[in-house]
């Protein structure tokens, strides 16, 4: 049976479906009866849930967070949808269609990955080609690469976001590299393909987007450089030596691609290629962030709420 | 007679040509004889000049700076070329071929301006089209636009630099706008075409590149906004009204295109179009700055000297 | 009938008057009855309002924000005044005495404006005199100038605040200019008179204080410079030419009067006059902000709450 | 015999007078003869001095820096005045008219100090009056107060500069206090009178302006607070107790009068009085700095050289 | 009768004890009955308190904050302990065992103070020895020194915290001084002993930790310097002169021990001793802050909540 | 024959020894004769060298920089030692005793390394012990570790500086770890031992101290993390697995040990161990920097020159 998405529920419907439950709390009314308040969500949004006549036993059994099967009905409360729960039971995360619960790119993942591979195929320098190939040949890693989000909060924060961001950056690079003939395209293309690869290890995205312990302690920038060196070591074991000069130029692009110390880059861009990758990354990330913020702003005001990361509100009135 | 360029002079040649003289100073040798030390330059470089047996009268007659006719010979002194002057006389600036003395873009100015016009021709919004057209119709301004440098020091600092920079930005925009369908292309194209127009008034570039008084007091960003408003007023007088909403969206792009308060933008980008113009401007300016710094670095070190504006030295060893 | 101001209502009174309503929300009690919570305000303060036995129809009819006629009674609830509403009906904003609802300077507007005109009359430079006169002759603008607030939040944030701030700055300038004979008083007086004129367009202040779209995209600093140039163009059309040198010196004062890039000035002060206007502006704004914060702090603590814009709490115990 | 000031010497004069000598160095010509190069200065400027046919014995006897009696002649060398020395002998600093050698306020010191005393006489709070009086009664300190410079480099850097700065600030305060009735004038006047008193200990100004060891380790701000507390202790010993509340409010003004942590204030302004003193100090210091920089700029350019402390060049063209 | 500590109360117990009450507020239920909500606390934690069937008379009698005798019972509400109050009466703060209510160091105060005295006894320079001795001889001050907290929020924020912090810093200094023979140990030991002495006046810690008025206006750094100078004056009156050089070196350590202007140090470290004291202070404060934050974090996550002062979350998983 | 050190040469000696030559330039006297000016140096200092009657052939043969055999004599010129060169010939760098030319720690390298090994031997965690052991077993690396400088400019910038710095930090850690029982000593000791290991690759120190290309592109922080991972991979290949948790905690210490983004740390300290290593590193580096700056300051002023990295001059007068 198809999942009933949160943003499709009308007031007055019967509910009998699986949702993610977050932050359940046990409360009592002023008359002393216990009830449980919680959030129920899937990838399309979230709703308040209320279970009246609850008990501590029920409360303690709830995952925090996790998946539950909910039976009840929907109603309108203070102009917002609310789900009144009659029965609630825990559901094993493995039995859940995770795509229903995590936001996902609305672009075609397979097509994007094909285009990424095609673009990587344009690299002519044999060593960079071999290195990129070693990554492409790592099935497990490429699966994660196609699934990981681009971040937890600011931009491309959905399943497939890392791929979408990388794919878009490669398209931008292909479009503008002819305008800058002094910039070495092989380094730019390899640098873009790999620049955020460490996010596959920095982020966890099984049930919600968060950082792994390792991700928080080391960060995706250094993790990516470690992966590049491990692949280079693996290639060397197979007889293909990557020159230190090439490895340094590539790792410098990765280390400096945030463009400033305060954004976690331990090195500032010092080559034309590093500058280009930094600018394309910033352009693509910010435009995704800005257009998503504008799209997701509720109401019809000309301005979004204040965006702290951008130090401004955004204006969304179109001309014409 | 063709000008003998500084970078073509070999030691031991007879010199009989016009050069720009800068910073002449009267000195005396330890034996008490007076001589004049000066720099002689044209757009290809500069050389030390020495006039032995000089007098205060000769010294006082020299322009500081200005053009002089020099007769003498070249020699090698401490591995550098030096010009020993026998006769020196002042030359009227109006009789000088200014192109010989100011660095100039090595791209084809006419072709670039044609492409700019063609790109501006793609604007469909009638009001923006009219506004851009009003600028294109201003012959005197367009002449300055094709001649002005893009800056005095950091990037595109040569005759035609403003045009080259604007042209390049338009090419980048055309290449990437299809990848960002939510961004309004008419605003981006008009914004790029006009973004630095005030530099025609901010900078003087007759004999050397410097700031006008007005340029230093007001700055090219506000000057550009004033020009846009004056053109809109002129259009209005002719019966074409530019909506305040369109004018605001356009002027916002101009005001915010430096991307940060500390770089003189009184507003931070708050629309997708403002973000895109800011990124393309920064990308094109920095890549010009980086590749020129790499090209102009003397010697064969892998690294340039420290670049303060970039807070790094630049690495220029190519892979392969 | 005179308006009953919020800060004059005692518990237990019958209420039958017009108030501004903000942020109404529909809630339900634990027993399921609907009620509406809202804020009712006028320029003297605000109170909670509660309408029990409400319906969604009533809720939907309420302006958010806007004016309403309220019938009910006042009571004390948790030591705060609360208004229990029996009937509520929408009132057309045009029928409302707006002065009752927006905070207003407690100084005499006419007298202040007269003194401003008298001070402007002291300007001797004929061009600056003409330019200031052109502003004074713009009736519509001068009406806004006398009515606009000085800001939305930090200082002089009340009707007439812009006039009060400008008036006070002129008084300070008159008092200290004799102590600094090297500072050109005509530029200082004209600069102060005009420095925030763009706030008449940046801010809206019909029902509450906020920014206009144009104000947020362009900012009052650049708007002021545009107004000065438009007045100069108008004068020119009438045969009075303002020298570019004078226009630049004046606009430089306006552009730099926030004193630092991070406060939105695209130029830093570079003339004695610009420094003086910047200091007088900062002095008057900060002293207004500080004394208002001290006055408005509830309770009798020696210290106000933390003031983020000043990075400190304020101490208000008087000596003696 | 009246001192022949440096800025009055014409080329070709016989020199027989006392000057301050700084940075003498022993050099040899390319033919191996020894000579001494040095700077000779008084309060009106400095000139190069050259003693040909010098010896190491003469060189070693020269003070570095100190006063010397110079006999020789003036000449023009590379358009600058130079003094050729035949005889040079050391002069005891105590026998020198120090006023000839240190720049000095061009205002009347006695008159300024009288006005300071008169202004301090306006303080009505008996405790602040007593405290200020204790300072005025300290003859030795008041002598230093009238003689000390206001700083070593940026503003009021001449003998009498501290008095001139304090006097000017008091005049500004008297002029604007009536416009800010909520500000306690007694605290402001006492605060201004004392705010930089510690500079009498922070700076040394016998032969040139520099910092004392104690001044560099502690700073004039904390030194001033220590002086205030010692005077209060002295008053207490005589039976006049200064309330801690008053002492705290006064010392807070002194501690916060630089207005920002990065300028050495350990506390930010937190009272209206502290804000007013901070603004008046900054206004008077910056206007002195700006007008002196403009006045002292050589040449006739519209712009001064870059002023690092102000992050701009200064524009000095007058209107009209 | 021993105090029943908050963290020892189980649900369902009878309560009859003294607690500190904070932030009582009078509320009404949806049925209109009045009740009082409040926090009850001692040094081990805090609990919600509810008094149903309350009156305004009872509410007004409650101290805000202060001590109360509470009779009632404990219960579990929403998984948190809550105290239902039947009777509540005010208790005189002087009759209360304050140690029960303020967090306190878990180290032995007497032993730490003995070790501080012993360490101070190692100072060999007779003047520094005399100065430290003058502090040790001030019984009243030493009592405060042993009782004051080290701060209000970030580190050592408990009774005895100042002593614990000073004691620990002295132990660190003793351990590492032998490794840095160029650092003058007498200055370091005296500097550490006295560095935060002004906190005895900056902070109040009778019933809760807060700043005194004087503390907020002046700050503990300057207060400490004032105390040192007053002790030196007192010694001088008794015939022991402290050289200005020694006083300056010591006060410089105190003034610069926060290491940066933005942390309230009006001077940056300029001696090896000042650097060492600054580093030991920062090391001990941060390690206390970090380990306390880790210890006090509820739940069993590997990470604490975001710590703004450290700009990170803290990781607390142990290896092995 | 023992090397004659620069700082031992008296005027008037015959010179016949090897020195490093830097920045030779060919000049001509005013009479047109060619001569070569250069610096001659060894680890004790440098001297001007002059070769009169030089030729372009001689000049071109000189290494820039490199080693030369110099024959000539010393003389005093302008109070400085100068070497007049009669013959000069190039010397192969391999035949030179490099210790004579590079500054070197004055501590016993063997003894320090023994103590480092002993301290590392105290690590009890078997995985950290194995990892540290893997580094100790790498002979070639340990040789570099004992020879590399601690930096190029600010601190420990001499042969053996890296070892001395690491050794000192370990001693400090051993001394203070008992005072902080919550800090895991094994992580601290391993972290200190390895924290700067990448400097062996970041710096080159054959003839002078500089950065390698790879060092400038990647930096020693990331290089160290790469080395740790490669050693862990090597151990794994031998059957000893290092847990990811342990590797992350260790690498986090290394990545965050500069304590701030602007100093090149891509992560801020987030564990007690990371804080401790950061503080000990900063303490030891700054105290080395401060005491060396004080020691090396020429003259007998109480103050050193301005130290930009510390934003102060340093005071070096000792008490007593």
Question: How do the strands and helices of this protein lay out in sequence?
Answer:
Six copies of one chain form a homohexamer.
Chain A: E1 14-28, E2 34-42, E3 45-51, H1 56-61, E4 66-77, E5 80-91, H2 109-120, H3 126-136, H4 139-147, H5 161-176, H6 185-194, H7 199-202, E6 203-204, E7 210-211, H8 213-218, H9 220-237, H10 244-255, H11 272-296
Parallel strand pairs in A: 3-5
Antiparallel strand pairs in A: 1-2, 1-4, 2-3, 4-5, 6-7
Helix pairs in contact in A: 2-5, 3-9, 5-6, 5-11, 6-10, 6-11, 9-10
Give an account of the 3D structure.
Six copies of one chain form a homohexamer. Chain A is an alpha+beta fold and about 325 residues long. In chain A, about 40% of the residues lie in helices and about 20% in strands. Chain A contains eleven helices and seven strands. Chain A has helices at about 55-60, 110-120, 125-135, 140-145, 160-175, 185-195, 200, 215-220, 220-235, 245-255, 270-295; strands at about 15-30, 35-40, 45-50, 65-75, 80-90, 205, 210. In chain A, strands 1-2-3-5-4 form a five-stranded mixed barrel. In chain A, strands 6-7 form a two-stranded antiparallel ribbon. In chain A, a hairpin with a 2-residue loop joins strand 4 and strand 5. In chain A, helix 3 (about 125-135) packs across helix 9 (about 220-235), helix 5 (about 160-175) packs across helix 11 (about 270-295) and helix 6 crosses helix 11 (about 270-295). The longest helix of chain A has 25 residues, at about 270-295. The first copy, chain A, starts with 13 loop residues before the first strand and ends in a 24-residue tail after the last helix. Chains A and B meet through helix 5, helix 10 and helix 11 of A and helix 5, helix 10 and helix 11 of B.
């Amino acid at each position: 049976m198809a999942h009933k998405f949160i943003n499709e529920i009308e007031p007055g419907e019967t509910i009998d479906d699986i949702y993610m439950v977050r932050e359940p709390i046990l409360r009592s009314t002023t008359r002393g009866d216990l009830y449980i308040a919680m959030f129920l969500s899937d990838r399309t949004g979230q709703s308040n849930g209320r279970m009246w006549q609850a008990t501590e036993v029920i409360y303690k059994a709830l995952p925090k967070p996790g998946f539950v099967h909910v039976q009840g009905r929907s109603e309108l409360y203070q102009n917002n949808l609310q789900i009144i729960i009659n029965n609630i039971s825990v559901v094993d995360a493995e039995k859940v269609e995770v795509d229903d619960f995590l936001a996902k790119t609305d672009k075609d993942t397979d097509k994007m990955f094909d285009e990424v591979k095609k673009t990587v195929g344009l690299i002519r320098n044999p060593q960079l080609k071999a290195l990129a190939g070693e990554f492409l040949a790592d099935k497990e890693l490429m699966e994660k690469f196609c699934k990981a989000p681009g971040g937890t909060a600011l931009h491309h924060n959905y399943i497939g976001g890392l791929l979408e961001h990388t794919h878009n950056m490669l398209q931008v690079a292909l479009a503008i590299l002819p305008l800058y003939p002094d910039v070495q395209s092989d380094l730019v293309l390899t640098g873009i393909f790999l620049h955020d690869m460490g996010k596959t290890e920095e982020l966890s995205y099984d049930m919600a987007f968060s950082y792994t312990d390792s991700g928080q302690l080391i960060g995706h920038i250094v993790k990516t450089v470690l992966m590049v060196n491990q692949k280079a070591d693996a290639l060397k074991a197979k007889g293909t030596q990557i020159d230190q000069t090439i490895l340094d130029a590539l790792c410098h692009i990765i280390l400096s691609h945030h463009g400033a110390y305060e954004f976690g880059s331990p090195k500032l861009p010092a080559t034309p290629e590093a500058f280009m990758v930094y600018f394309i990354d910033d352009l693509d990330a910010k435009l995704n962030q800005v257009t998503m913020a504008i799209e997701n702003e509720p109401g019809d005001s000309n301005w979004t709420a204040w965006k702290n990361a951008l130090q401004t509100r955004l204006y969304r009135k179109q001309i014409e």
